[in-house]
Amino acid sequence: MSKDILKLTCRELRDSIAKGEIKSSEAVSAVFERIEKYDGQIGAYLNTYKNDALGKAKEVDGKISKGKSIGVLAGVPIAVKDVLCTTFGTTTCGSKILENFHSPYNATVIEKLLAADAVIIGKTNLDEFAMGSSTENSGLKKTVNPWDKSRVPGGSSGGSAAAVAAKMCFAALGSDTGGSIRQPASFCGITGLKPTYGRVSRYGLVAYGSSLDQIGPLTASVGDCALLLSVIAGHDERDSTSVDEKMAPVYDFSAEIDEPLKNLKIAVVPQLFEGADSEVVNAVKGAIDIYKKLGAEIIEIKMPHFEYAIAAYYLIATAEASSNLARYDGVHYGHRTKNPADYIEVYTKSRNEAFGQEVKRRIMLGTYALSSGYYDAYYLKALKVRNLIRGDFTAAFQKADCVIMPTSPTTAFKIGEKTADPLQMYLSDVYTIAVNLAGVPAISIPCGFDKNNLPIGLQIIASAFQEEKLLRIARMFESQTDFHKRRPEL
Amino acid sequence: MTNIDYKVIVGLEIHVQLATRTKMFCGCELIFAAEPNSRVCPVCLGLPGALPVMNKQAVEFAILTALSLNCKVAEFTKWDRKSYYYPDLPKNYQISQYDLPIGSTGFIEIPLPDGKVKKIRIRRVHLEEDAGKNIHSEGNFSQVDLNRAGTPLLEIVTEPDINSAEEVRLLAIELQRIVRFLGVSEADMQKGHMRFEPNVNLHIKKDNNEYKTPITEIKNLNSFKALEKSVAFEAQRQLAEFLDSGKVMQSGNKKTLGWDDIREVTVLQREKEEAHDYRYFPDPDLVPVVVNKKWLVEIKTKLCELPLTMQNRFVSEYGLSDYDAGVLTADKAAAEFFDNTVKAGGDAKRICNLVTQTGLKIANEKNCKVSQLGISPQKLAELAKMVEAGQISATASVTIFEKMTQSESAPQQIAESLNLLQKSDEGELEKIVDEVIAANPQAVEDAKSGDKKSKKANGFLMGQVMQKTKGTANPQVVAKILSSKLNKGI
Lengths: 490, 490
Prior knowledge:
The complex is a heterodimer. By secondary structure, chain A is α/β, with parallel strands linked by helices. Chain A is built from 16 helices and 11 strands. An 11-stranded mixed sheet of chain A has the order 1-3-2-4-6-5-10-11-9-7-8, sandwiched between helices. In chain A, a hairpin with a 5-residue loop joins β10 and β11 (455-462). Chain B folds into 3 domains: 11-191 and 251-296, no CATH class; 307-417, no CATH class; 426-487, Orthogonal Bundle (Arc Repressor Mutant, subunit A). Chain B has helices at 56-68, 165-182, 224-245, 293-300, 307-318, 322-329, 332-343, 348-366, 377-388, 394-404, 411-417, 426-439, 441-449, 452-468, 475-489; strands at 4-17, 72-73, 76-77, 80-83, 93-96, 103-111, 117-129, 133-136, 142-145, 152-158, 194-206, 209-212, 216-218, 255-260, 265-270, 281-282, 289-290.
């Protein structure tokens, strides 16, 4: 029985639970069976909450047996990236500085999941403060790729992606600042959506790059991404940057997911295929062929400023991070050094002891970029580049419904392969970063496997608040293929 | 020394705490002297994941003040982060306004003792959040109280147009009057609602050369007395230092001083103006503020007649002395109450005396505004008219005023019930005067004598009449009858 449960999508599971065919507690037990069996090798979770999860599952089962109304994720076991504040357990951000931090409040998305009767089973590993592309920067744990345990799961939402790929949850939430949902989804052979900036409330998402951060789902299918987005999206008065629902209405994005888009126009950027592995390029070209067969018109465009995205990103994101992370100072909460000589040492030693290398590197970069005398040359210039990149996308969406490109130039790389060379690591986000700078939505879906049987991701990008269209375009491809159904042998 | 002439140059920075119900960026209520760390939430504690939301009331108060200080109000403004590490600053950055303050290039008019008015230019008016408080306890540690963190502060910066310690004080008092009139701040000095930081130096003419002394900034003054005294002290100290050392202003030799309230001297805090780099950049968690015409018009309806304008009107229209007009306009409630009473009819000077000498005293005892004593302007006008008409004495009017605060009755009724109506009937009073004259021949003799004794005897006779009438005789009428009787006898 439990094997069959794990093959279900979130929607199927929820409907079976609602009909009383499956109990939520069975689904939760099935997931924990997997976690107990495999997470020792994978390391996707920082913390799991089996008792609480079973308790919540029983509560949902009780509601159903009493005929009470239930939420759209009723009884579905879901994992969340440990960068989302929860009143249960710790909220560590994968950092030693918050290793024992307990949040007194829930992030808005957590409240929304709970209101939809989802069962939150645990919190997943990540690059410290979501800074990284391999989850190797976690200060607390190592996570490996379920397809090849010598390889990284991608990052920074590597734990969430690995948990979904290894069927240790039915879906997960991650956060995406420069590709942190899409790239690990690509590396782990699953589906990951970064919504439009402002679509999902950031309240309770521990900030890395505030103008870029966005929470989104990692799932086994496009339909589940749509379902989860419908639950977590919406204006939140506690987040001034979340968008008014008059401008961006929220409804069930999965309702018409199987409805193909007529007169679909897809833009491709030939210049961007140059930097990717040939196997990745071939898989993406194969995907384009499928769209052609489905009647889509493919047009070639140029995005002249795309190549400057990484440079601009590493100024804007780090500038914001240097300020966002200033609060971890050992004074109010989190790690504090022992026996400081004075209050200055509380700061310097606490931070030096508990932040990892990459976090320190980005704080220093950002501090430098904002320093007087350098602000105009770096930060301000980067903002101008950001506007130009936005312009590239605006121009693209005047011609096409979406832009298609690889999610990552390579498949999952070996653990340790890029840790010595941060620049090489940064380049693995070359296709995803521009999307965050432009604030538009994008999805990564499985579109093939390389010779090592590692998944390849296809990135589809749409214009702001066009998630429904984006998801339907993604579903058109998914319905023709079974890449998304493949799961690694553990 | 004979060839020395100098001018004091002062620019003032003022922080005014706004009287909003809640904090600048969260819903915590502003309550003075609450239990430490009891008025806090994730936002003002700067917890991970928390986001600020702008308090619109604070922005409206800031705009009202800017308008009243004749400033240009920015049509587009934004929030910036000012970064520095201090334990009372939980995020280690302060949300403030950097290059686009809400108000700029205005002026304030201050009344000088010689009756003239001086214009001091205002450089900028901007909003920011306050920090918490560090409490240095006994023992080897300090504590932080974050109740104040996030309190809305208006920072007002003048140009260096102030030329004496007295002018600095007058400006501070005028500003206090303005913000109280607008209702944007309680401006209670005891509660730290106004804090001052003057920048002081001297322009010295010596032997036909002009020298500028190094600028000093005196931090954190929270009384008018400290403000005036510290500037006066600093001017003298700088003069002495110049005569001693000849030191003049150079870049980098600005000093930061504190004020020792007990010894009444300035004390050095920082020798060199440290090269503070606050790394300002726009806060990505907040959206820019657009002040459109409609909103501005709405805010302008809340403007009121400013205290100095009202004071001048009381002098020119009602013939009050500048002093009386000043006393009335120190408090908006008193000024408006007075104004309305005069408009209800009655002699302005008489009403002024009633309000300032009796009304303010009772209000002070009852710890309320003079307008809250339960006396309408109409009733007070009636009372004033009764004094004018000689129906009651000035002394009786005080008694009646007091009674009116406890009773709904009209002053006429109160006067009757307390038997305070004066006898002005000449025939009746003449009879009593005759009786007194007949009974006191010696005094009549003395009174008529015209020498030293006469005045005293006159008073005695008057006293006898008052005694016989139990104080209800109109003294003016009695004096008239008495004098005509005595003169007739010669």
